[in-house]
Amino acid sequence: MGVGLIERYRERLPLAPGAPAVSLGEGSTPLLHAPRLSAALGVELWLKWEGANPTGSFKDRGMCVAVSQALAEGANAVICASTGNTAASASAYAARAGLKAIVLEPAGAVALGKLAQARAAGATVLEVRGSFDEALAAARELARRGTHVLVNSVNPFRIEGQKTAAFELVEELGGPPEVLALPYGGGGNTTAYFQGFSELGTVPRFLPCQAAERATTRASAIRISEPVHAREVAEAVAGSGGEVLTVTDAQIVAAWQALAHEEGVFCEPASAAPVAALHHAGLAPGTQVVCVLTGHGLKDAEAVDRTAPPPVTVDADPDAIAAAAQ
Description:
- The chain is α/β, with parallel strands linked by helices.
- The protein has 2 domains: 5-57 and 157-306, Rossmann fold (3-Layer(aba) Sandwich); 59-155, Rossmann fold (3-Layer(aba) Sandwich), CATH 3.40.50.1100.
- The protein is built from 14 helices and 10 strands.
- The chain has a 6-stranded mixed sheet, sandwiched between helices. Strands 5-4-3-6 form a 4-stranded parallel sheet, with helices on both faces.
- Helix 5 (112-120) links the parallel strand 4 (100-106) and strand 5.
- Helix 3 runs parallel beside helix 4.
- The protein is globular.
């Protein structure tokens, strides 16, 4: 039976004494070597495959801790604003804890796979006429009124749970990587990794990777125009000798396809941003790099329809099949 991250790292988490462990078996995700992309990029590339978490994204790491603490404090409901992954995770963990979940999503801006997860878990899903930033402002106000517990990454327990990925990387590699590259939407995950490595006293060079078209990018998971953790990201970059890298949607799509075609890893487009950025990161040959792939490709299956050729219809005839497959 899989052990969740609270059981593995409780002594490193500031949960209330006796807080229940609301778990779906999150954490302990694979660290995959990427030999073909390593050769193409001239680095030693590893992929931290967070799409293997229970709801298919890294959000589960922080959500299990945030919801566990909310339950310990006697909460009845949680609320979040989301571009999709937070919604799916909050809905699942709230259901696991027996709590009500309210999800605020920007109207028309969320991939259907993520929306389906939240709805399937029984959350109250409300489409807000406005941006993610406006939805988050509304969620924060409701939390201030004391009627709901906010489980976005401004909740410190979210960051505490997500920092455990840094612990796993050090355990798996025998030390930190030279470089950590990861998608940069709101900046919570960069903040969490920097906290985790800092607690261990060993920090890699950070390369948060953002979309050039922040407010309109097709990489919906990082479609956030005003990163709420911008200050913390700047501190992580400055404290590690790193830099924020920017990639276009075309570059993200090319890297996303390369991950699937060359390494067999089907992630959501936003996850490919750090791989795209490595093409112009100026790293020395052989540098050890971990790219964090934050979410599973089934989160945004519509992206495949936009970029991959459609299936070809053939007769059930071996010659016809062989000809079509050439």
